[in-house]
Amino acid sequence: MRRARRLDALAGKTVCEFWNGVFKGDITFPLIRRRLQERHPGLTIVPYTEFPHSAGSDDPARQREHAERLAQLARERGAHAVISGNGA
Amino acid sequence: MEKAGIPSVVVTTTGFSALARFTGKAGGVEDLAIAEYPGPLGMHDAQTIARNLEGVVEQIAVALTQSASEPHAGSAAFDPGQTVFSGSEEEIARFFAEKGWSDGLPIVPPTVARVEEFLRYTDRPAREQISVLPSANRRATPWAIAANAVMAGCAPMHMPLLVAAVEALGDERASLNNIGSSSGIFPFALVNGPLAREFGVACGGQAISSGTNPAIGRAIGLIVRNIAGFRPGASYMGTFGYPLAFALAENEAESPWPPFHVEHGYEPGTSTVAIGVTNNWGSAPAPYDTPDKRGAEVALELLSREIVRKTRVFNFPARGPTAESVMLTLLLSPPVAKSLAAAGYSKQDVKQHLYQNTRMTLREFEWVVKYTMIERTTVRERVEAGVLPEEFLGKPDDEVRVLSSPDILHVVVCGDPHRNRVMVLEGGHTRPTTRPITLPAFWSRLRNSA
Residue B390 and which of A27, B90, B362, B432 are 20 to 30 A apart at CA? Predict the structure, then answer.
């Protein structure tokens, strides 16, 4: 499948952060958040701390459950988009 | 998120965007949006990260607001029986290597005749789906398994073993989709039961290098490459790469305990193949720059910690004419080397620092000497013989230097230029020897005519 339809703009939207618990996301997410909000008025970013975030599990079934749970939480928070990271 | 209709972007670091796209495609999203952070994030300090994130922020905004370009039309269904190349054995090997279908070694060309011979040794239909192997999510059929087994140099009779191995690889618990890590994770095959002997899978001395083990291991590796889709540098990101996969059988006759497969619920008379994983040729830990400790400092401490965990640490401090030769080769990925250089360390400085600071307590060192050393001796005796220095006669909690000299350390910069990892290779009974490579006078002519 192709990716979901993109937003017309970030201004006034709600974006959620999902962190996988590794690779300095606790440093990068706050910096990215601040700069995006400076440049896009009215952009609301729900920080990664509002969602379950931790390294692992490497069990595929748990990975799927976790992804589904995150998707549900994102919808509940009114997410228009998601930033996830960090992959390295 | 994309499947839920929520646009998303994944933040990756250099070198891992391809793996992210590969994983996204395996998950059903053809054109995963990526924002790439430049370089080894783990080794960057707060200032560098802040500076580098400027570009990432721009990429995120674009990824969430701009449509992707039209995807290419996708390939037509592939007929596995079609001839993909004709030529000499050398030309075939080169073609397969260029396509990424081989491990770089000469292969046995998988002709239709050879594949069909292998298929005689299984009653599974040639096009039956044995497994779907992540992360490429390709169908592993007996035909595809046979082609890789031919290439690896297996015998046709190995088909039942390899079919079982592919079933094991496709078991969700194998989590094959997780093995692309920069740690360098690789599967191995463990064979149990009476068929191990019939298949020629060795379990005794030099097991993985004996019998049919090398060919079977290699076949597993080629299956992981060509069906599961793990290609070094694209989706298979071990910082220092991978040696060939290996296979072994358990020495059930010599074991006082139930064999592996019985522990896992099988009858002793059943033959099984289990797939495990290992960091094939040693651990490659990653030093991280943190607020309380710079990356260079962490790298040096990490190297010391790796050195004292090595098997033959009891010989590392030994000196004099009766001491066993020791060599320790330290592999540093370029970001680690550069962080050390930026902190003012030359190679010699690194060696000198490690010589002075790689220590363990005398209590631990004495344990290693007493319980793991082939020579029946004590630390005191070794000091009296002049093999160990006087500092080894201290108290149990004294920390002693475990390296005899900086000269037993050899620093080599290699590996993924976007990853922060180190690896310590220990060697004994030998010292590194080096010779210049001399080209014949007709070298240029020869190369130009190739």
Answer: B432
